[in-house]
Amino acid sequence: MRARERAKARKTNPSILRLLEALRKASRENDAKIWRDIAERLERPRRSYAEVNLSRINRYAEDGDTVLVPGKVLGAGRLEKRVTVAALAFSQKAFASIRESGGRCLTIEELMRENPKGSRIKIMA
Questions:
Q1: Could you give the maximum distance between any two Cα atoms of the chain, in Å?
Q2: DSSP character string of 26-86
């Protein structure tokens, strides 16, 4: 890739840039490869970010699990389990459904602060 193409491909959203920096720092400081993996996924073009429906979370997560979505959680389907979901963004319906089922909605930064080692987290993409 040429220098000009690399410059065009660079992220410009300041909040994403801060998140990428924080993810890499957490990965180095805590020797947690999960944060580096999430940073690499979020460095890709926005159109390739994950979009996960509630039905998929309900299918693959167990009660009490922590699920990380490197993208957006969408409200299609039903969630019948109490799970903690961390994501870049939530649709309004998904946010409400997770809260109604007794779960928690977190940002990726909040999850990093709560679980710096990244242990027992399921990535759904």
A1: 49
A2: HHHHHT-HHHHHHHHHHHS-GGGSEEEEHHHHHHH--TT-EEEEEEEEE--S---S--EEE
Determine the residue type at 86. Answer: A
| pTM exceeding the 0.85 threshold for the entire prediction | yes
Q: What are phi and psi of 98, to 5 degrees?
A: -65, -45
Total length of the chain: 125
CB contact at 8 A, 55 and 77: yes
pLDDT tens string 25-80: 999 999 999 999 999 999 999 999 999 999 999 999 999 999 999 999 999 999 99
